[in-house]
Amino acid sequence: MVVSGTEIDLLATRLDRAERTVTDTPSLAEDHEFDIEDAYRIQDRLIGLRLGRGESIVGVKLGFTSKAKMAQMGVSDVIVGRLTDAMRFDDGADVDLSRFIHPKIEPEIAYRLGRDVDLDDPATDIATCVDAVAPAMEIIDSRYRDFRFTYTDVIADNTSAAGYVIGPWQRMQEAGNRAVRLEVGATCVVGSTAAILGDPIKALHALVGMARHRSIPLCAGQVVLAGAATAAVTLTATVARCDVAGLGSVTVRGRS
Ligand code: OOG
Ligand code: MG
Questions:
Q1: How far, CA to CA in Å, does 39 sit from each of 56, 89, 107, 154?
Q2: Residue 148 belongs to domain with CATH number
Q3: Among 6, 9, 95, 152, which is 20 to 30 Å from 46 by CA?
Q4: In a mutational test of the pocket of ligand 1, which residue from 138, 139, 182, 242 has the highest number of ligand atoms less than 8 Å from its CB?
Q5: Atom of ligand 1 nearest to the CA of 228
Q6: Using one digit for the tens of pLDDT, what is the confidence trace for 75-129?
Q7: CA 66 and chain centroid, separation
């Protein structure tokens, strides 16, 4: 199924408008037929609209790298989305909740690329390009009504990406099987980084294949979010804090 460029533009504009007006929109798949390739084309176009407004790409994020997330959202394969500078929050910052439709927050592991990843080299080892690792959180805010979407919908919607915050960077080290704790006010969820494809480093390996296939450059200085280790929690007007054993913690405060 190849959707026309005009339709791709139309669907990207619909998602962009939903984000900018903080108004949800019905699933695109409800009344449009499009496949995974088309969905990534819509995502590209959506990112193009952001770049056109002066935002810049600062990294990428993976989604559905853990069973907890797949089960929560009813989706079963890894996806990739883009992070821009406008999505970044400082550790400890206030998050204005009125910017979002129905935000959720989830615990993540962030990797930082110390050099470009050569996607043309089949022997590339992305782990050798990483120079730091940190505890992080992602704010997801599906533009779809009630957070209900199909697999292609969520890809088109830049994988629900809305915000991210990174804790103190640590030297690159093995980060598999670390206890993860996310507290959002009185709500607490716990898990392990092992939930992320067995080890979050495997998320990086999965990323290389997708980046190659989708022509997504992976450059020095960029951040990679490996995907949530637990299900996401609704972000309310309270402190959200993520602790990863041995890596440290990161917080934001929701403000209504
Ligand atoms: C899609 C984003 C998934 C993750 O870490 O698995 C994701 C969603 O749940 O709306 O970011
Ligand atoms: Mg995530």
A1: 21, 27, 26, 8
A2: 3.90.850.10
A3: 95
A4: 138
A5: 5
A6: 879 999 999 999 999 999 999 999 999 999 999 999 999 999 999 999 999 999 9
A7: 13
Ligand 1 pocket test: pick from 64, 65, 189, 230 the residue with the most ligand atoms within 8 Å of its Cβ.
Answer: 64
Rounded to the nearest angstrom, the gap between the alpha carbon of residue 22 and the centroid of all alpha carbons in its chain is 19
Q: Residue 72: which domain range?
A: 5-255
Q: What is the whole-number distance in angstroms between the Cα of residue 228 and the centre of ligand 2? A: 5
pLDDT exceeds cutoff 60 at 1: no
User: Ligand 1 in contact with 197 (CB < 6 A)?
Assistant: no
For residue 154 and ligand 1, the question of a CB distance below 6 A is answered with yes
| H/E run at residue 48 | helix 36-52
Closest approach atom of ligand 1 to CA 64: 6
Confidence of residue 3 (pLDDT cuts 50, 70, 90): confident
Say if residues 110 and 133 touch (Cβ distance below 8 Å): yes
Q: How many structural domains compose the chain?
A: 1
Over the chain, what is the mean pLDDT?
96
